[in-house]
Each structure stands twice: as C-alpha cells, then as structure tokens.
Please model this.
Amino acid sequence: MDSAFTALCNILHILTLQKRNSSHLLILSSDDTAQNYVHLLLTYPSFDIISIFSLFDFRNIKRDKLASPTELMSFFKRPEPESRKVSRAAEIMEMTLHLIKNKVYQKYKRSINATDLLSFDSLIALANTSGCFPRVQPPTCSNSCLAHKYRTIDGTCNNRNNPRWGASNTALARWLPPQYEDGFSQPKGWNSEFLYNGLTLPLVREVTNRILHASNEAVREDTLYSHIMVEWGQYIVHDFAFTPQSSSQAAFLGGIDCQSTCNNLSPCFPIKVDPRVTSNGCITFYRSAPICGSGEQDFETASGLNPRQQINALTSFIDASTVYGSTPAHEVRLRNYTSQEGLLLTNTRYLDGGYALLPFVDQVQSPCVQEPNAPKGERVECFLAGESRANEILTLVSMHTLWMREHNRLAKALHGINPHWNSETVYQEARKIVGALHQIITMRDYVPKILGPRAFNQFIGAYSGYDKTLNPAVSNVFATAAFRFGHATISPKLQRLDKNYQEHPNYPSLNLHEAFFSPWRIIKEGGLDPLFRGLLARPAKLQTQDQMVTEELTEKLFALTNAVALDLASLNLQRGRDHGLPGYNDWREFCGLERLETKMNLSEAISDLDLVEKIMDVYKYPDNIDVWLGSLAEDFLPGARIGPLFGCLIGKQMKALREGDRFWWESPGIFTSAQRHELLKHSLSRVICDNTGITEVPLDAFQLGQFPQDFVPCNQVNKLNHQAWRENLKQVGLCGPPKPVEHGDFVLCNTSEPSIISYICHHGFQLVGLEELICTVKGWSSDPPVCKGKDFTFYSGNLPKLLLFQVRRTSQSAGEEGEEGERRERKGQQGRSEAMKGEEKRQRKICLRD
Ligand code: HEM
Ligand SMILES: [Ca+2]
Model:
C-alpha cells in the first residue's frame, strides 16, 4: 500500500537497550526507505516507541526502605524470565502494529488494521523479530524413554497430538469468547461512556465497599474445616494458574508511570475512585500480559481480530510445579546437581530445628520485608521455590518448604533402596511421587469438601481414564473468577501455636498484613511448626453472604507500613474486566443454569435478601454482574463451600485437569498397582509428621478438630511403604553361543541361556539397551548390562526373557561419554543454561546408560 509498509518487511532487528531501570526499544531496518521510515518512528513521536518497555527492575532497587504495596504486587505478579520473554514479545508485536495503525490513521485519516496493511510475509518477519514467532510454533516431542516415563518440566508433550495443551506459558483456555469493548482487546470499563444494557458498569471499588467488605471483627468461623484447607487452596492454585501482568510498568505510549495516573493508558488500568486518601484517587493496576498471536496481532490468520488472550505461566497439570518449577531454566535453579541422591537445593545459612529451609533467591536485596530490629547489614532475602509467589504469605512459603523437604526425604529413601539409580532417576522418581501426592490430596481430600457431593458427582465422578481429547489447560474464568472463591475464606489472623496447641508464648498470632513477604519470621520466629499447628487447629473463615472478604485483604493487602494498600476484592473484579470475562448470567447459561433477570429471580439463587438488594442497587441489572461477585454471592450447595455456578466451573476444570493428564497418577501404566496402593495411604498429615517437629496431627488435616481429643500421635498415621519402588539387583545367566560381534551389531539375548555378554565384555565392547524395547518392559530399570572389567552386572526388577541390545565399543564411545557426562555435570554447576541445550541428548544417555 505504501513504501513505508513495504519497508517494514525489511525490519531486521528489534533491539532492547538496557538503561538503568528501564529498557528502550529500537527498531533497525535494512534499506534506505526503511531507514527513513524507522527514522520517522524513532524521531517524533519517537517516545511512542522509546516508552514501550520501561521495565521496573528490582535488581537495581536500593532496598533501604520498605517496598510499597504496589511494588510488592508487581513482584508478586512479575513474570519469570521465560514468561517475561513471552509477554514482552507479544507486547512488542502488539505495540508495533498499534503504532503502524496510528501512523496510517495520521496520514490517511482513516482507520485500517495494521494486519490488513502488511503482507503475510511482513507479518511473519515482524513476528520473528519481536520474538513472537517461535512462541506459536509447536514444540517437537521427544520419543525417548524418559519422555514416556516422566513429565516434561514445562508440561509440553503431555498430549502428543496437541503438545502445548496444559504447557506453561501458553494461553489460558477460553470456555466462552471474551467480551472486550472494542471487540478484541479493550477491557470492560475501559471507556467511561461504554454502556452495558444501557448502563455503565459500577466501579469495582464501589462493589467492594458496598457488597464484599467485611470488618476483621465480624468473622464467622468454619465449624468443619481448618485453615490449612484455605492454605492448600492457595498453594494448589500456585501449581496450576499464574497470570503474569504486563512486563511494563509505564504506559506504552507516553511513558507515564502507571502509579501516577488515573487514566486508562495501556498497560495501566487503574482502579478508580478510591475514597481513601490517595494522591490520585486510584489504586494502581496493570493489565495482564497478552500472549503472542492474540489481540491486535493475529499473524497466523492475518485477520487482526483474534481477541486478546492472557498467559498461564505455569503448567496447568497438578504436577507439583510449586516444587520443581514450570520451565527448564527454573528447575535448574532449584536442583542440587552435586548430590547423588537427586535432591533439591536447601538453604545453606539457616536450618529450622534440624530441618532444611528453602534457599534464598539469588537476586540480592529482594523486596521481602526485613526484621525491624535486625543487626545492621543482616538481611533475609525472599525464599526460592518452584513458584515465584511463594513468599506472599508465611503459611504459603511454609507449605512450599514442607514439600521441598518431602522431596528430599523421599529421594534419600529411594536412593537407599535402589543404590544403582543415578541421581536423575532418583530425582524423577521422587518428583513423580510428590506430583502424585499433590493430585491425591487435591482430588481425594480437598475438592470434595469444596464442591460437596452433588457437584463432585455431577462434574467429576470416578476416574475414567486418560482422555486425549480433553484440553487440560486452565481456563480464564477458572483462574480469574471461580477459583478465587478462596479469597472469601481467608481468616484475618494467622495463628501460631506451641506444642500444646495453645497460643505461642513467644510468637503471638499475626494479622495477615504482618505476614506478607516476611520470610525473616520463619527464620527468627520458630520456623514452620507454630504456623502449621495454627493451620491444623484453627478454623477457616466461613464465607457468608454478609461477610465476604475480610478487611485485611480489602484494606491492607500488601501494606507493610501505613502506605495506602491494595484491595484484593477490587483486584479480582478489575482482573475479570481486564480479561473481558463475560458476565454472571452468560456463565450461568454456559453451565446450564437459568439466567436470573430480575430481583425476584436473583433471590432464588441468593437467599439473603439484603445482599440481593445491595447487588441490584449497585449493578442495576443482573446481566451486568461480574461473574466472580455473582457466583460468590450464591447460596452454597449442600455440603459444599461454593454455590452452583462455581461448582460447575471448578468441577469442569478439575475434571479436565484429571482426565486430560496423560500422567495422572491413577492412569494405567504410570504406577504399578502396588505403588498406587501405597500412595493412597499417604496424606498431608503424614507429610507434616515426616517433615516437621510436629508429633500429633488430625488424621485428615482439613477436618477441623480439637486438640488433643481429635489428634493422633504421628506413629498412628499411615504412610506409604517405599519398598514398592525397590528394584531388585539380579545377576543373570549368560546367553547365546559366543560369536564375534562388532560395534553397532544388534544382539538378541535370551536371559535364561548362556550368553555372549561375557564375550562382549572380554573384547572391550559395551551393550546398550534399545530404548523402544526397554521402555515397554515393566519393572526394567532401563539399565543395560554394565561391563565391570571382564564381568558384568544387570540391574532389574522382573527380567524379561528376551532382550535386544546394541553393541558399542567401550574404548571410544562409552568411555568418552562417561567423561563427557562428568564434565557436563561440573560445568552445569556454573552455567546451567548451556547444559539445557544438551538436555535431550543427556536424557537419552541417562535412559540408556543410567
Ligand atoms: C493470604 C492469602 C491470599 C492472598 C494474600 C492472595 C492474594 C492474591 C493476589 C494479590 C492475587 C492477584 C490478584 C490480581 O491482581 O488479579 C491472587 C490471585 C489469585 N488467587 Fe489468591 N490470595 C490468597 C489466597 C488464595 C486462596 C486461598 C485461593 C483459592 C482457594 C486463591 C486463589 C487465587 C486465584 C485462582 C488467583 C488467580 C491466579 C492467577 O491466575 O494468576 N488465593 N491472589
Ligand atoms: Ca502445575
């Protein structure tokens, strides 16, 4: 259409230049026309571009003062490097297209989508330079032995036909199309004049103030469930949903800091009209990052109208990614590669009564709160766990610590009974057990108590096997609304108890806001035990229709000083609008529930008439009700802690997380039946017994009980028997008449007859088991026989009769590989990323040579 656009095809590089706390974007182009065009872009109004990425980089912050609630929130919602790359790429792509569109508008005075102007090739070129293109390419799935045996760390290839289903850093699934004000990107409530059924949407803060807010004093306690159930809810969400916010903290166009504006300037989407004293009358809010190929940048179909989608930075699967991370790079940071026992790293400075603590993040001067009277220069940084939000509250980071300990405990036990396993096998086997325990505790102990029997049977029911047609990806409505039901069950106090389950004499209970981002309290105030006792023996908050979200969360979220705090209820509502979630009635219809169009109708679902009155007063029309608020207000289902709409949405999601997971613990072939039997004996209470100083627990951790009558000593709590994981070491007979073999020969061995193996060993050859065969052999540890001098040994559980091997010359390949492996191990300690490149190769080797 115009040479300037042709020139865009020639864009070669998009460079980001780091400058103090921010990075600037520069577009370089290859030919003169393009140079001119780019020059135009970079001069006036060049600040459009220069301001795209004003990254707030915590590494550069001098932490001599407390972080503000907004800074902490940004830390909390800050994407991990891998997700940051994904979201930055999408934002570069989106803003470049947006700028082009604006230029066209300025020049031709008519609005044309940038994607209509650019040829497919140009779009691809742009997608490539922005970093978006690789993000939409399907990963290649390995066919190696390990790929069939263990999950990938990022969840790719769980589904072999759709390898990105459930993987980290992919889009949250949409069960209903989003409703954006411009059709593809602008949040609900972005344009003040936009009408919904003839009405504007109420401000979210008004909804909170008038409907949701509950004072700290007015809290009804749950009579059935303990507070650890709430903590499990939060912890397990952090296994399957994290929607990172934009990587920029300043408006893309103009560069104004989101903290100092009350205007909607992407990615700033401030929460307006805050009656509390604030400088600008707004609570800072950043839009969630988009994902490549969505919003204004559909370069796959080049239609330009693919609605904006948000990212899930985590593996959707319940796979203990809280413990191991959701990307290869993060996993590497957590593992102890020097141990032979497949361990996770632990804190090298502090212990908790003999038990390990999580390591600190390597970013020094992290934003975590410091002990007020700490000796000068002494700092306690944030803990490093598999999930980036771990430090948010003391009880959450305690749960992360507990599972790191459980991994290390299991790994040591597995290594003890299988000394022939190498560290990788031990790590993967322990990881597999820990993942299975997360699934069992969630699906057997937690979900039924939330959903109640009716919704559980209707939407989940008994396990019916792996369904490869079911997409396990966490849905947008689940992460942004349904599973946030838990925010209404958080008690304003964190109780800390002593050995007799009484208020701890040294460490009194804390208000929630004193427990945010405060890892120092774990180290200086009694470790995990007082916190876990409080979780076990004190009740959850009961959500009632007149007491929804406690003041600690609506008025003091992340407030460590008197600074103006955030408001979790308003964040939830604003997030729903940011994601363009359809309204309450649309979701009821989606779930086969009737639409509630009048006050009378509403009162059928919400029996508290005062609440109905308030909702109608604020929203005026039921279709406009935000889905989180509407569903939260519904009467509970019998025996449940949620109403029918959340029951449906959570039930459907849980079913997908179970049946859509190829590695679900009950799926045939994942564990042996003996192992499944053992796994079922285990429980959260057992994990607490095994990894803390606590000696008495309730049998079901979530069930609220009185101490001491409802508690039992740990020796009465069932545990899994590791022996089900033992692989027997056997020396087998030789097979086949000796005959000359050569490097690369295949040898079929009958394990009950005399063998040529000794011949092979004598002649400096090694046998390498063929993956295909070995993977299909149950109980076979995938170790080929190892020549030891002139002898050889086999490691195996049940040896099959026939084995197929390939002969490899030891003097060259086997010897070299051994050394190379060691070298890589050593090198890996310094720079892990390089080792990652050889990951596939390394995995193959482990599989073959153990
Ligand atoms: C002290 C306890 C908790 C605090 C301080 C807390 C705080 C937060 C915050 C600040 C967000 C981000 C809000 C936004 O900007 O969108 C969030 C998200 C979320 N929370 Fe909580 N939360 C807590 C407990 C829970 C519990 C108990 C549950 C469920 C049982 C839960 C479920 C969720 C979910 C599903 C999300 C969205 C996750 C995502 O996709 O990013 N939270 N929480
Ligand atoms: Ca996960």
